[in-house]
Amino acid sequence: MSTHNTLTQFIIEQQRKVPEASGDLTLLINDIATACKCISHTVSRGSMTGMLGSAGTENVQGETQKQLDIITNDIMVETLEWTGHLSGMVSEEVDDFIPIPEQYPKGKYLALFDPLDGSSNIDINLTVGTIFSILAGPEGSDASQDDFLQKGVDQVCAGFVLYGPSTMMILTTGQGVNGFTLDQDVGEFILTHPNMTIPEDTQEFSINMSNQRFWEPAVQQYIDECMQGTEGPRDKNFNMRWVASMVAEVYRILTRGGVFLYPLDSRDSGKQGKLRLMYEANPMGFIVEQAGGSCSTGLQRILDIQPTDIHQRVPVILGSKNEVNRVIAYHQK
Ligand code: AHM
Ligand code: MG
Questions:
Q1: Distance from the alpha carbon of residue 247 to the mean position of ligand 1, in angstroms
Q2: For the chain, does the N or the C end have fewer beta carbons within 10 angstroms?
Q3: The predicted structure's pLDDT at residue 168
Q4: pTM given for the model
Q5: Closest residue by CA, ligand 1 atom 14
Q6: Total domain count for the chain?
Q7: CATH number at residue 48
């Protein structure tokens, strides 16, 4: 194995391009990588951990928590809280924001994360992941809830780690998107997918078809036209994939293009969709845009939404630019 092209080398070299950089972000990304290696090891042990299945509790969104949702949340919090790089955290699995314990120094960043995205897949041994977003925080003092309510466009860094056949970290600091594969023997993430880009066109969509009767009309029309294939107005056949793990869908889109939709759903009109803005839609939106794709609610660019709640939900349409633009155009009709 080469010791070149590690994640550590890559982020240090990126840091050197910013003369005023303090190195805090580099260290924070390294700490996140450490937490995710630990999560990767934990989830790869499957049933041997004795921790598959439900925890018998619910998170703030009323979703049943898996034991591994809670354990992976603890790994993230315990790895990051003492480092001195953060002034607070937000997790999908914790109702309020997570302050930094008094005994530790406060840093200039905020970390927001979904510790185990797609966790409904964990018991059936399918791909899951960790999604994270880094914002600037109030340097040196405790964060308040309002400090987290920043638009996605202000993210400093975003990424996700995929626990699939291989473990991968996908990262952006606003200078493109790069993918790193974990060398399990050496314990290092290695740059394997530099400058990931999403093709502008695609013939593959991703949506949970079982919800079709609850979708808004624009999404009904878009999917209906895809389904008609060469016999419809699109005049081409489409393929469909639904892993029910956003990390896996976004990785596929980064690799070969596609469009992913979790639209507004009439069952949950008060909830504005299923996915969470601050630690799912915003980081994925930042990554997808940095790779040349688009990310929208259908009516608004996701990264421009002014958040009002750390756990708010949002409809998400992301991926290949020309397809997302088409869905936006149908919304505007
Ligand atoms: P989670 O964070 O509780 O795992 O929920 C988010 C996941 C996404 O990864 C995925 O796109 C979606 O929920 C799947 O939802 P559904 O089961 O409704 O198809
Ligand atoms: Mg999630």
A1: 10
A2: C
A3: 98
A4: 0.95
A5: 244
A6: 2
A7: 3.30.540.10
